[in-house]
Amino acid sequence: MKEKSEITEKYLGLYKDNINKISGISSPFINSFRAPAFEKFSKLGIPSKKDEAYKYTNLNIFFDHDYENYFMPVPADFIKAEEFRCEVTDLDAYGVVLLNGFYPTLNEKLRQLPSGVWIGSLNAAAVQFSDIFEKNYGKYAKSETDGLIHLNTAMASDGVFVYIPEGVHMTRPVQVVNLVQSDDDTFNQHRNLIIAEKNSNFSIIICDHTLSPQKFLTNAVTEVFVGENAHFDIIRVQNEHNNACKITSTFIHQEKNSVTSSNNITLHGGLIRNNTYHYLGGEGAESYSYGLFLADKWQHIDNFVNVDHAFPHCTSNQLFKGVLDDMSTGAFNGRILVRPDAQGTLAYQKNNNILLTDDTKMDTKPQLEIFADDVKCSHGATIGQLDDDALFYLQSRGINKREARLMLMFGFAHEVIQNIKIEPLRERMDNLVMQRLKGELSRCASCMVKCM
Amino acid sequence: MLIINNLKASIEGKSILKGISLDIKPGEIHAIMGPNGSGKSTLAAVLAGREDIEITEGTVTYLGKNLLEMTAEDRAKEGIFLGFQYPIEIPGVSMVNFMKTAVNEHRKHKGLDPLSASDFLKMMREKKELVEIDSKLANRSVNEGFSGGEKKKNEIFQMAMLEPKLAILDETDSGLDIDALRIVANGVNKLKRPDNSFIVITHYQRLLDFIVPDVVHVLYDGRIVKTAGKELALELEEKGYDWIKKEIENNVTT
Question: CA-CA distance, B209 to B207, in Å (whole number)?
Fold first, then answer.
C-alpha cells in the first residue's frame, strides 16, 4: 500500500492541472471557496485507513488510479443523458438529470415550478439567486477531518440546486438522476444545494446510475437547509456497476421543530461510502436516518452517520441494515453527539446485518458522546445469520426453505424500505430488492451497460 | 393417522425422548401432559420436522408414510400443523404475504391453482372471525408487537387457514387469560372434524375443560408413563405430578 501523501499528491496535481478550466466555467462566488478549501485538503489529504472515520474502508482501490479525464461537458454529451428514462414510470416527479455531475446545457439552466419553487443548475443559481445562495452555500458542509469534503469544495462546479419558498408544500417530489458515462476512466465531483424554507414540505429522490463500464470515482457533496417547522425527505437509490466508486456526503441542517428523513438504499456498487450528517440546530427538531445495502461479490459498502444534537428536546433515530453475500464487506459507523445544552434528547440507533457466507465481513461501530444529563439514548448492533427459529416457523407452514429464506431476507430489508413514503418508489424498491435477493438482478436494473 | 413407535431423540448429545409410542386415530384428541422438561415440546418439534433434533431410534408413520424422511414443509403440506409455544416474531414479513404464500404452497401441493387475491382475502376474513382475531393484525408483520394472547390466537388463525389433518398444539394455553383461552378452545372445537386429529400439549387441566380429550398421556423424563381417559387430567390437577414420579421411582426400586 502506498503512503497517503503519494495518493494525495495525485489529487493536488489534478487540481492544479484543471483549476483554470474549472474556474472558467464557474460562478465567482463558488470560485471564492476554492483556494481555502484546497489549502485544507492539502493538509488533510485523501482519507486512509489510519483515519478513525475511514478505518474500515480502503479508498486506495479507487483513488490510487490515474483517471484519464476530469470531465468537462460539451452539449453533445447530454444527448444520451436526455434519452435516459427512469424505469419507475408511475413515479410522478419533477425530473432532473445530471451527467457526470453537470446540469445539462441543452435546456434552460433553471426551471420554475408552481408556487415559486426553483430547480436547476447549482452554478446558474449562484448567479441568479445570489442572495439565497450566498447565505447557504458552504455553510453546512464542514469537516475538520475529512479531506474529501474540501476536495469537493475546491473543484466542484455544478450540481443540483433546489429552492422551496416558505410555506410551500410540494406534493410531487423532485427526482435527480445522476448518470456517469465516459469513454475514459473518470473522476467526477458535484455539489448539490437544497433549501427548504420555513413551514415547507419537500421530498427529493437521488438515483445513481452508471451508463458505461469504465472505472468511475464520484465524490459528491449535498448541503441541505431545512427551515423551522419544515418537513424534508431525501431518498438515495444507488445502483452502479462494480467498477464504480461513489462517495456521498450529505449535510442536513435543521432548524426548530423541523422533521427530516434520509434513506440510503444501496442495491449495487463497487465501493460506496455514504456520509450523512444531521445537525439538529433548533429545539424540537426530529431526524430519521435510514440505510439498507445488499452487497455481493467483492463490493464494499460503508455508511457513516453523524447526528449532532445541539439543542434541547430533539429526537433522532438511526436504522441501518446490510445483507452481505459472497466475499463482500461492509461497515457502519454511527455517531451520536449530545452537546451540553441538549437536555431532553431522545436518540436511538440500530444496526443489523446478515452475513450469508463465511467470507463476508462487517464492521459496526456505535459512537455515543453524551455531554447532557437528561438524555434517553440507546443503540444496538447485530451481525449474524438468518434466524433458524424464524426459518423453521415459515417451513412449518409449508413454505419451502429457499422461499422461507427469501421471505426472511426480504422482511429484513423491508423494515428499512417501509420508511419510504412515496408509494411507487417504495413498491419499486421492494421489487428490486426481491429480484436482487432471488439473484435475478445480476447487473444494475435499468443500466444499459452489459458489464459483469 | 399417526403411529409413533419407540421414538428416541436427543439434542446436542443429550437424550430427551427415551422411547415413545403413540397411536392416534382420525377424529381423536390426545392430550399430553407432564412436568417441565419432560420432553413435550421436543416431541412436538420432532413431529413438525425441526432439524436440530437427532432421532436415534424408532419410527413415525403418518398416513402410511415415513414421517421422519419428510422435510418440515412437506409435512405441513401433507397436513401436519404445529401451534408454537412461543410463536416467532418476523419483522418486515406481513401476515397477508405469509399466509398467502403458505396457503398457495398447500394448494400447489394438492394440484390446485393459487387463490385469487379476492378469494384469499375473503378466506382471511372468514377465518379471522372464527378466532375473533383483530382484523388489524393481518396488516402487521408476523407476530411483531402482538401480545401473548394475540400470538396464540394467531396460531389458531393460521391453523384455520391451513386446515390440517393433524394439529399439534404446544402449550397453546400458557399465558392466556380465561377469555382468550375460551376463544382458542372454541377455534379448535369449530375446526374439529371426524377425519382430523389433535395433539394438545398442556400443563394444566384448565384447557381440557374446553377441549375434551379422548385420551390423556403423561410424559415424564422422555417416556409416556401413564395413559388413561379424560379423568386422568382431573386427577393430575388435584394431586399434581408427584404421585406419578413416586410411582415410577417405586417401580424402579422394586
Answer: 5
Task: Kindly list the domain boundaries of chain B, sorted by start residue.
Answer: 2-253
**Tens digit of each residue's pLDDT (9 = 90 or more) over A234-265:** 999 998 888 999 999 999 999 999 999 999 99
First to last CA, chain A: 27
Q: Do B92 and A401 touch (CB under 8 A)?
A: no
* Structural domain for A292, as ranges: 4-388
In a domain, A376, yes or no: yes
Residues 6+ apart with CB under 8 A from A439: none
What is the Cα A267 distance to its own chain's centre?
13
* Domain contains A441: no
For chain A, percent helix, then strand, then coil, each to nearest 5? Answer: 25, 40, 35
**Residues belonging to chain A with any Cβ–Cβ distance to chain B shorter than 8 Å:** 387-390, 392-401, 403-404, 407-408, 410-415, 418
Residue A223 is assigned to a structural domain of this protein: yes
Q: Cα distance from A381 to chain B (closest Cα, Å)?
A: 16
Beta sheet of A174-180, edge-to-edge order: A94-99, A174-180, A201-210, A231-239, A259-268, A286-295, A315-324, A345-355, A375-384
Q: Report yes or no on whether pTM surpasses 0.80.
A: yes
Query: Which residues lie below 8 Å from residue A14, measured CB to CB, with a gap of 6+?
Result: A67, A70, A155, A187
- Partner-chain contact B51 A392, CB within 8 Å: yes
Q: Are B23 and B199 in contact (CB under 8 A)?
A: no
User: B48 touching A, CB under 8 A?
Assistant: yes
Q: How many domains does chain A have?
A: 1
Digit-coded pLDDT (tens) for A138-175: 999 999 999 999 999 999 989 999 999 999 999 999 99
**Closest approach of chain A CAs to the CA of B65, in angstroms?**
17
Please state, in angstroms and rounded to a whole number, the distance separating the CA atoms of residues A259 and B45.
48
- Name the CATH superfamily for B2-253: P-loop containing nucleotide triphosphate hydrolases (3.40.50.300)
Cell numbers representing residue A188 in the block = 467526477
Nearest residue of B to residue A393 by CA position? B88
Span A20-76, pLDDT tens digits:
999 998 999 999 999 999 999 999 999 998 899 999 999 998 999 888 766 677 777
Contact A256, A283 (CB under 8 A): yes
Please name the member of A393, A398, A411 whose beta carbon is closest to the beta carbon of B105: A398
Is B93 within 8 Å of A408 when comparing Cβ atoms?
yes
CB within 8 Å: B72 and A396? yes
- Burial string for A290-315 (b: 16+ CB within 10 Å, else e) reads bbbbbbbeebbbbbbbbbbbbbbbbb
C-alpha distances out from residue B147 to A428, B151, B180, Å: 32, 6, 11
Among candidates B71, B102, B141 on the partner chain, residue whose Cβ is nearest the Cβ of A397: B102
**Shortest Cα–Cα distance, B177 to chain A (Å):** 25
Residue B112: list chain A partners with CB under 8 A. Answer: none
Residue A448 lies in a domain: no
Mutate to test the interface with B, among A319, A323, A393, A412 (most CBs of B within 10 A): A393
Look-up of cell digits 378466532: B131
Grid coordinates of A168: 410551500
Task: Please determine, for residue A80, whether its predicted confidence score (pLDDT) is greater than 80.
Answer: no
Chain A residues closer than 8 Å to B158 by CB: 397
Q: Please, which residues have CB within 8 angstroms of residue A148's CB and are 6 or more apart in sequence?
A: A46, A47, A219, A247, A249
Looking from the CA of B33 toward its CB, the CA atoms found within 13 Å total 27
